[in-house]
Amino acid sequence: MSGWHRFANPTRFSRLSARILPWALALTIVLFAAGLYLALVGSPPDARQKDTVRIMYIHVPAAWMALSTYVLMAIFSGMGFIWKHPLADIAAKNCAPVGAGFTLLALITGALWGAPMWGTWWEWGDARLTSFLILFFLYLGYIALWQVFEDPEKAARAAAILALVGLINIPVIHFSVQWWNTLHQPASVFRRGGPTIDPAMLWPLFIMLAAFEAYFVSVLLLRIRAEVAEWRVRALQMMQAEA
Amino acid sequence: MHWEYASYIWSAYAAAAVILPAVAVVSIVRLRRALRLQAALEAQVDNLRGGADEA
């Protein structure tokens, strides 16, 4: 754990992130260019879904990222809660808007796929759909909690509790397609027995997932650096006021 | 491209083309503004310190 603690130093983090950021941004652009080409041009239509399968190259990575970002946000929240590392709180705080963006994108693209394939944009009785909507509200609630408190320590603590309690929704989302009868199809990539998707569609999906991951790392580093700089600005303003 | 359900597909990609860059651009603008303000304040504080040392 001591390795992690080393990066809790904001100055060290800013220096390291400044070095990583250009590479992460370049990787994001390259992976999105390759992924979009394969998704829109280089992959075949599905036998049943026809060309709507192309929506999956956006929808599935967005949904995976929405879930993994929430888990990461809860881990950072837990670290901030236990070890009182301000940088862990900042990281958790800045995961939320990015995760909310992924969740919104997954909801929109899911509805756009559902309309032609299921004959409906939305189904309230579907456990996967409604639990995913709850995830979006959890992100919004978490963002709102940071705004409610003036004291950042209190805000971090309240938001961390919400993030950790909301973690219960993640297995509900994941297993909803097994626990209940849902319109949403069961897992077809990360499942026992291996993926059921043809490699011609699996590779574009993995490249798009890598592009979403690189995008997430880039934006999170940008946001944490901005927040650390804003802290420094507040400290300098106080120094000026005292002088 | 002659896809079946093309309007749904383009709408999905348009949603991604709005949401993902929007979050990134807001973050970049915020970072640039914070770094600019930080540099300006650091220069002012250095001047104040310099003035105090001379005095």
What does this structure look like?
The complex is a heterodimer of chains A (243) and B (55). Helices cover 80% and strands 0% of the residues of chain A. Chain A has helices at 2-6, 10-42, 53-83, 86-118, 127-148, 152-166, 169-179, 199-242. In chain A, α3 (53-83) packs antiparallel against α4 and α5 runs antiparallel to α6 (152-166). In chain A, 40% of the residues are buried. Chain A contains eight helices and no strands. Chain A has one domain (3-242). Chain A is an all-alpha fold. Helices cover 89% and strands 0% of the residues of chain B. By secondary structure, chain B is an all-alpha fold. Chain B has a domain at 21-55. The interface between A and B is medium-sized, with 39 and 31 residues.
What's the count of strands of chain A?
0
Looking at the chains present, what oligomeric state does this protein adopt? Answer: heterodimer
Distance between the termini of chain B: 74 Å
Structural class of chain A: mainly alpha
Indicate the radius of gyration of chain A in whole angstroms. Answer: 20 Å
Number of helices of chain A: 8
Determine the number of helices of chain B (DSSP H or I, runs of at least 4 residues): 1
How many structural domains of chain A?
1
Distance between the termini of chain A: 40 Å
Major β-sheet profile of chain B: none
Order of helices and strands of chain A: HHHHHHHH
Uncertain runs of chain A: none
In helices, the fraction of residues of chain B equals over 70%
CA radius of gyration of chain B? 24 Å
